[in-house]
């Protein structure tokens, strides 16, 4: 059986360990939140580029029949 002083010391050590663990988890959480924010920005930029490419591709596809007709009439 622990003496009251030994029990207090052991509890204080456990509290210190828990606080250190909490600090580490808070740091991990902050790092992950920053990473999430960065990845969300990257995703948004890629989605914008994809949308621009789709618009350009649609415009090219609309022009294809006219280009084909012009090529055929030029032969």
State the total count of DSSP E strands: 0
Sheet having the most strands = none
Helix content: over 70%
- Secondary-structure element sequence? H
Radius of gyration, taken over Cα atoms and rounded to an integer in Å: 32 Å
Q: What is the subunit arrangement here?
A: single chain
Q: What structural category characterises the helix and strand content?
A: mainly alpha
Beta-strand portion reads under 5%
Q: Which outline best applies? A: rod-shaped
Mean of the pLDDT scores?
Answer: 94
Low-confidence stretches: none
**Terminal-residue CA separation:** 103 Å
How many helix segments? 1
Give your account of this protein's structure.
This protein is an all-alpha fold and 75 residues long. The protein has a domain at 40-75. The protein has one helix and no strands. The chain has one helix at residues 4-74. The mean pLDDT is 94.
Tags for this entry?
mainly alpha; 75 residues; rod-shaped; 95% helix; 1 helix
Write the layout of secondary structure elements.
Blueprint: H1 4-74
Write a compact overview of the structure shown.
The protein is mainly α and 75 residues long. The chain is 95% helix and 0% strand. The longest helix has 71 residues, at 4-74.
